[in-house]
Amino acid sequence: MKRSILYKLLFLALLPLNIWAVEDIDSLLNHYEEESALNLKTKRDSSGHNIVYTRDELDKMQAHTLKDVIKSIRQLTMMDNSFGATELQRAGAYCTNSACVRLYVNDQEMTSGFFGGALGIFSEYDLGHIDHIQIYLGGNAIEFGNEYGFITIKMYTKDPDREKGSSVGLSYGTNDSYRVNALTTGKLDNDINYLLYASKLKNNKDTLGHKGYDVPRYSDNLNLFATFKRENDFIFELSRYEHKHDGLTGFGDQKTPTRSDRKSMYQYLSLTKYFDTVKLQISYAEEEVGITNNDYNGITLYDGSFTTEYDNRFENKIFRVNAKDSRTFGKHRFFYGVEYQHKGIKPNFNIDGVDRSSEFEGPDSIDLYSVFLEYQYQFSEDTVLLATGKLERYDQHYNDRTDNLTQSRIGIVSQLNENLLFKGFISQNYIYPSLEQLSTAPRPVKGNVNLIPTNIDTVSAEFTYKTEQYQVGLGYLKMYTIDPIKVNANKMYFNKKIEAIFDDYFVNCTYNFNKDNKVIVEYYWTNHNRPFSQSPSAGGHIKLFNTYDDFDFYTEFIYREGFVHKVFAMEIDDGYDLTAAITYHMNSTTTVSLKGQNLLDKAILAPIRGLYPIGTLDKKVMLNVEWFF
Q1: pLDDT band, very low/low/confident/very high, at 147 (cuts 50, 70, 90)
Q2: Which of 142, 289, 505, 565 is a good FRET partner for 241, with 20 to 30 A between their CA atoms?
């Protein structure tokens, strides 16, 4: 059955190529895929198993938000959780700590002081100022920062040294959704180039119904970003991001909220200074999170108390400083550095109009110190061996708790012959519990100060065969997850004493018809030792990038295998997400584009306890006009 589905998808996907592909075989690419100079500069094969979205691809995809990119990543499924926030669930499992995903804008990690990872806030991060995106699976390398994630997403902004002029874009679509964005670049005195960007996005979804109550679905985003740069000297960035979205079912026992929404604000300053081979970065971020949930049918807190009005506010501060350096001596390269990070929170709980903030117990800050070293040995002209070690210390400032931990990684990157590349890695990592999981407060779920880190051990290998016309990849990853953090029947976080074992496989192929037309086909599947699946264990996609005269075309078909969630007593059908986009370059100053997502209205649904399966993506059509000057 699965095989026949894949054959049908492949047949449907290849149809547009008969129309738009240019048949001149002599115009084939002399390289494997078209990548921008910035992308070539930031790509690191030694950092792991990576997926790259070039600037040209993002433009043809009309990838306006991060959701447009992450929804097709192998071994992962994009799903909304019961509070309306978007998460990435690894194949077959459910991640209870959003720190499973590490998100960066350049070198600035977009993390949450209280919740750990911040994808739930940044899933609709606007990409109008992003040049390219690199995604690393199976564990992050040490140069990405302190904390581990199964997936690391690095968004690189457009370089003010290269960008010229300004642009303005307007979009409008289904359910009165809209997007307005503007970008400008210029040069100040003393050879300082700058880039300024602003966007406003409103995404309205179809309202849900449950037990006679309307549950509205929406999100509202404001993104402001500025960078000032002097080549080989410094980079200064400042940003403010505001995000508001529905809280879906909220905390209520009957899942019947009369009001449920979440507001977030994240702003940061970052300074990167270069001293010969040394790179110093200092950053300061402030985060404000507000959760409002009113439910006349009641919300039960972890201590058994009952409320109908729940208001939760957090003010978080995150400070980071790190210094990195690299030295090469013949065949030996050393990359090393130190980093300090502080996360502090100030909580505020208002329950039925009564301030109960004093009931907060547990750590309200964590300091993290780390020192790291990566050694690379150029075994031969085509083979590099590497070993990484990191020592870390967590100070919770609560009960004098200190955790001394280590991370390690060994690997090999070898060009076996002119066409065949091999990567292999063995790593030992962990996920440290978030402040949300460690602390106890008048919330529906109780924290646990005795939580220990979740150990993550991985073994992975990948072969990539490339010619001028096509690329074929084959990969495998085995992951051991020990002591994962779950929520028990008493609504309390705890370490489940199990070893979850996952065997991940993937195969993909990129075929270049010429420099403007290509097709990408990928399929993955996962086996695991858990009693049932909590997310799709298999899936794949077909992507078509085409150009004909002044038109660009993009077609994407994403498949996710259905599953039965036994705990929620829900059966989730197979998901089929069809996206189609067309861009018309009217002239050098104006482009008009049209995009439809989830056109079959059959994208994978997310199981929501106490509700029913819901869609993360609505069926939607957007018209966009962009002017350059």
Answers
A1: confident
A2: 142
